[in-house]
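Troubleshooting entry. Yesterday's outputs looked truncated, so today I'm pasting the complete records for two proteins to confirm everything comes through intact. If either block looks cut off, that's the bug. Protein one:
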Amino acid sequence: MKYFDRVLIANRGEIARRIIRTCKRLGIQTVSVYSEADAELPFVKEADEAVPIGQSQAKMSYLDIEKILDAAKQTNAQAIHPGYGFLSENPAFAKRCEEEGIVFIGPRSSMIQAMGSKIEARRLMQAAGVPVVPGYDGKIDTVEEALRIAESLGYPLMLKASAGGGGIGMQLVSSAEELQKVYSSTIQRANSYFGDGTVFLEKFIENPRHIEVQVVCDHHGNAIHLFERECSVQRRNQKVIEESPSPFLTGEDRRKLCETAVQGIKNIGYTNVGTMEFIFGNDHSFYFLEMNTRLQVEHPVTEAVTGLDLVELQLKIAAGEQLAIKQEDVKQNGHAVESRLYAEDPLTYFPSPGKINRLTFPGQDVRLDFAVVEGNTVSPFYDPMIGKIITHGSTREEALQKMERSLTELDVDGITTNLPLLIQVLQNRDFQQGNYTTQLLNKMGNGGIGIVKG
């Protein structure tokens, strides 16, 4: 089914190519928008039409709402897919789409607004009966107020930006002295990155696991989950390797977690695809962290184990169609793993832009979602992730073996990447046994990077 005649993709790189693939399969024409830095990238050439929208800096191109809307009107696009990052969770952009009569492929702007505030999201989930990390849900105006609240909650705590995301705007504090020291700088950082300096306090869960649930809801009251993704391999609070199912969950854990996620989204009347993120303690207790109101980077592992196309589901729901699948139709088939390839130094995590002189892909039994081809230049202007490697097997062991083989066969010359780090995680005994938390890379040494060099 077609759903739309023409869709504009307000994004770049691998996610733009990913959306184009599904649209082509469905007979939907696509429009790419691109900055000066991206003119030679594959996503520009693969779309049916491409519109330049400005200079390389994101705020002068991919974050310019009016330029993107102008491109949509100029090309007669009926809908806009925002991908992830950039404007995908910007309620002002979704609202402008609504005002212009262009379908925003995602939830309505008021829902993005509500769930984009971590404080408001915590309140909504508590009202829905979803457990949240113990903490203070009000706006904290002064360091003296923060100190009083912290004293009542007890240290260690996380001082968090309400509008934060991507691991930015979080600060661990273990004492009143530390809280006093970082309070103002955390607010300044939140203002700088998110334009909102509101902060709040949560209890710090030590040595946790990060597990999320993919949810899908239509406009007809149907809501289902597509099971969980384990995302605990992280560097600086940003995901590196994801897998599904989680090796940590029991069947009963999984049932409770997924039912809780669906309970939460039904209660708030969510629509389109989204992700409920949870944090797990060693005792298997779990708490709601936040909701991402968009397609996730790691959505391919869910597609691999369920056989569903999440971009098609997004298009279908945005077109007002009813979900054709029921919860009992969704099965977890085998095991899937995704590795994120970053153009960055695995020792320092600093981006490593430059020209890719050689790019050799692995041969078989692997899905490759890449932004670049050989000869492309990785720009310093955007996130350094250049591709994703996804493997699937009938068992976790088989999926991991395929991943290790694929990473070993992958060859990138001309830029520095985190490929050595990915291989070493795959070879780590704790990871292989599924016995790991968000502290895995730290346990491997110096944030996981000490063992890489040489």
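Protein two, checking that the full record survives here as well:
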Amino acid sequence: MSSVRVAGTGLTPFGEYPERTSRDLFAEASTTALEDSAVPRDDVDGVLYGNFMGELSEHQGHQGPLMAEAAGVTAPATRYEAACASSGMALRDAVIRLRNGECDVLLVGGAERMTNLGTAGATEALAIAADDLWEVRAGMTFPGAYALMATAYFETYGGDRADLAHIAAKNHENALTNEKAQYQRALSVEDVLEAPTVSSPLGLYDSCPLSDGAAAVVLVSEKYADEHDLEAPVAITGTGQGGDRMALHDREYLARSPAAREAATQAYADADIGADDVDLAEVHDCFTIAEVLALEALDLEQVGEGISAARDGRTTADGETPINLSGGLKAKGHPVGATGVSQVAEVATLLAGDHPNSEHVEGATTGVAHNAGGTVASAVVHVLEVTA
């Protein structure tokens, strides 16, 4: 089985760019990734692209070929849709195809244009990732859904809003040095606690922002990397996917993420590592409570203990296992279709020593990226390791 190397990464700045189309954003990210990889466009065997709400925000479906064109690539292209896990799923398929020997070079990425819809329009568009019959028509929004999960967690394991506020403050602190981040400004725990309530117990600063942006990576087989003398020291050594019932009321647990645990178990086994081997992780913190659920699903914290990880410093930049050194979705931003690949790009650059926050994880060899769709009805986890 061939090893899969990350040969190049490219991100646009995440933020509010309502005048930029998805094709414009992806052209920038993919060009940066290709130039970073030193791989000629003619060598690309396929384009795998994640996007969630293109039909609603841009009246544009069938985006695969369009994005290949934007990237200047003539290879076949496919669009993936799995809500907020769209490009993470695209990347998982790319890893499988490269391992199978079907191809040697794949351009994988995603983009989302959201802010042109406005807050109400984007909230309505995001809601289609929930169960329309049983959740959306009853008035549930994603802030409301994650508030239910936070309430269930507090009732089951304890914790409070101050614990969640430490997560928001940590991730904003991490974003200060990330020039791609939407919010390069610090938030104190008090700032988070004093913010307006969005859906109790969650406040404004417990939520990630609406974002526009794109991400891309160039993945190559080990054989291609060796034959072309590429500098690609980081490999994707593990991949896993999990699923859960769509509607919250059908689930056994509200305070756990079985889909993410399933994905992590597969990915760790695939890479032949354990959670104790993980030096850093980028996890899907669309809301602060989501980071807690992710840490416990990834076995980086024991169940019921993830709530105190940021407050006690275990997941801060200088902690035992730094989490979301990029700033996470919370501060770096969350252009839905781009998020999964952007997390992998951040982990790869952190491990390669090319990230502004690499100094906090000097000598790290193993990182994890966790990407979730909806209320984690879909989850995908990837393990990255320094292998060269």
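Both blocks look complete. Sanity check on protein two: The mean pLDDT is 97.
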